[in-house]
């Protein structure tokens, strides 16, 4: 049959074509209205086409060709427009018929494609008619296995899949269709089952989308059957495409509640096919479901696995699934399958991971059965957690954490320490990303993180982990940071964080408490509580809920009640932040019994830590009976406790609370009210206190509190007090001999007590008791045996201040022990305590001296010198006093004269009998300090007894003579040898005698006689002194310490000679000593470059003084060599460090000496030319300039060696130097207290250190530098204003005074540290 006209390929003129179209018919004579032209010029007769494809006898090749031509024509817009406009439904029936007639698969595919194209181009009516005709084919008869029915099912599936308009309305006999489709599921063909499942899936989906549940009763009527048949198909099929269709259908059915209905109507049979369904339902639905999903879960297609997991989620989420059904799935090992999916997938597909975790989360409802499976999959869960933790806001984070938490809680034995370490690191990473802002976190995630960590800490395996404690440190910081940062948005997180901190703190004790990691965790949590939680809760208490406040209090309480460790530092921080006031503020904001219980129990634990001895038990016993208002607490104090035992116990608790809070200046009520209540308590309960009913601690608390508020009243002068209460208190104190200093006490309380003269005797005994608790190490108090006693520093402050009887009490106690022959141990202990007080507070020495400690020292020296230990400790005390006290505080009474006499006698006899012992040299140091104080008109008579002691003079001469005889061997006798020690201390004694003699014995000094070598053996010395030549020998042969002190002695002697020259020039005879002076200068010249810069500088200054006596230096090449070497070194570029400048201080002094001469050598202009001076100035900076360099430039100005450029550069340099000095002085002022250190002479090295510092101590270098710069400026101004010959006289006079003033200021102005007024 030809359905395409034979002339479709002919081409004619337009007129012929027109006539042809008007008379067009096909070969069968069909009307032209049913013939449609194609774009190529041909035509298609719809009737012929219909007849061809609907005839079962038509050759398939013809049908296929016809369908291909039609498909090609439909792609042409004009053709398809004409077809759908004039004949839209003409081909519907033929195409459906063709699909039913032929079993050729390619032909069926062509037909289905044509139907799909026509539906896409046509309107809804065409699509609806196709749906109706195809569905009618299945509604009109039962299904059987055939290729044609497979094609028809596929076509229906394609039509339904397009979902154009609502295809459900075009299905006429829905019941019959459903019945046949459901029945067809029992056919043995997987292919037809797959097509049926897809059609059913699409029908259910369309119905759900377009009709909802309003017209779903047809399917619901077959719910049990369709579920069973679908599950059996899923169970039996081996094809993934069939599985996908089946799972899709089951998913829609689950979403529409079919499983729920099936579980509710488990015993009900359908009205039709009762027998068949009865046979199907032999297997329970839940078991069938469990068996059916196993194969898809193991499919190699991840999409099938994901769809199956989603189906399980829907199944478990429907309302009809009970815990029993869930347990069936678990027992059927579905959880194992899911864990295996996760393990094999390696977390590479997010959808698979998310669905798997959803399933496991739902399966966890069956706790008993699921617990075992969860334990098996724990390792897999850890890897999953690692994956989801890397993705911000991953939807499965919460589920994975929840599962981990359940596993850790229910199966703690399966977790290894490595698992715990890995999980803790993952948790740390999650929290850190949230804190750093790299990835935010859901509140639920935070809660689960805390839960998992708590469960991990409770696991036995965590106790052997080394790194979890370290991880918990970071976690603790991160969690509290998150809570504080997002408190306004997620306040509930704080409770979980607090619970985590509480468990972490307990965990640090459950492991090895001394392990560094455990200690680090403990310290970390304490730091968090102290630096983060405590300030936050104190500031935000008005904004937080009661549960949060209780959580913070519970955390703090759990920290304090750990029996193995008492966090005193944390408790101090707690109570120092006004915690008692804060606690009562909580009681006011949250007036509940729970809050009241928590507050008072926490306060009781604070008392346990601060006061010790289970002191908080008094509060715990009456916690629920105590009021919440501090005013009501004071009211309880005003009652008589003996009348009511409950009131009596409450009073004890109130006193302890007030007492402990007062220690930290946390006062809970008005001072007047507290003082009045305390007075009432004392007056009403004095008999109970005397009778011993009141515990000693409570009595001490009441005394301390009363003293505090009386001390505060004294400060303000506005609070009235009861004299009767004061008398009663003092009576109680003296009668009960209360150990006031055995408990902690406020400084104001302690000071007030020490200001009460009526109880001085009582306080004296208390001081002795307190001293007996002190721990003395190397004669210094280092601590107290009882840490809760009054601190040593508090007692020392009282002794040092002059507004109480502290110093007087100590001195009286010492005198009492000495006069009444007290125990030797007590005397020694008290002496050590006094020395320690002075070491801590040097001002205490002055107070002790003003209160007559010299009499006690006199008593020791006179009556207790036989006790070697007492004498030694006393000597150490005397040394400490004399190096600390202001000279004004020392009286010139007979006691010090006796002390000096006794010590001098001891020194002479001790050295004569035993040699230079440590004790003898310490006494030498004391004698030196006595002589030093004489410079300020103190201890004058005592100094006379020392200076004129002939035995001591002979002893010093003997030591010096023996040392001088050793010659070069003397170098080996340094401070480490007995000879060296004796020599060093004799030289020190000589130095201080030289300093003291002109003050103590004016007119007796003849320094020039010590310079004459001829008279040294002819005239005996009338006071302690050493001849100049002996000093030179010691300076030349001695060790470095000997050289140092010898140089100071020689410089002091030369200064005395120079002073004598200027005061009495007529008596000064130096010419006859010229040879001696030259020999002395030769020795000094050899030491100008000594390694100890102090020795070198002193020698240079001595040379300057000796030359000033009349020696000529023009012809001495040594001076030129020194000056040239100095200039070359200072002018070389790069050698500008401060150390270089200091090292050449002695050489600078020599250069200054040359420039000061009346007749300056001619070679000086060659050495100090413009180039060298410019080089020196260029190498100077504000940081390396020294006083000597300023002095050098000053003399260069006077010598006319500086030009205008030099002066301009120097002015700029000195201005920058002033700026630096002023900034350094500010820093020095800030650290001034740290510089005032008193050295306790517990060994001879410290005595030497003190004395050598006193000898070599210079005034402030910065101060001296500023003075020299000022003199330089004055000299510059004088040089500019007086360029006349008369200037020479003034220069000469200035020069003479400069030698004396400069040398004395630089090397002989001795300042005593810590309190001396020079």
Please describe the structure with a list of short key phrases separated by commas or semicolons.
1318 residues, mainly alpha, two-stranded antiparallel ribbon, 67 helices, 4 strands, 1% strand, elongated, ARM-type_fold, PRD1
First-last Cα distance:
141 Å
Overall SS class: mainly alpha
Summed up, the helix count is 67
Q: How much of the residues is beta strand, in percent? A: under 5%
The largest beta-sheet arranges its strands as 1-2
CA radius of gyration is: 55 Å
Which percent range fits the helix content?
A: 55-70%
Oligomer: single chain
Organism: Tagetes erecta
Protein name: Protein PRD1
Notes on the protein architecture:
The protein has 67 helices and four strands. The chain has 1318 residues and is mainly α. Strands 1-2 form a two-stranded antiparallel sheet. A two-stranded antiparallel sheet has the order 3-4. Helix 26 packs parallel to helix 28 and helix 52 crosses helix 65. The longest helix is centred in the last third of the chain and has 27 residues, at 1204-1230. It is elongated. The termini are far apart.
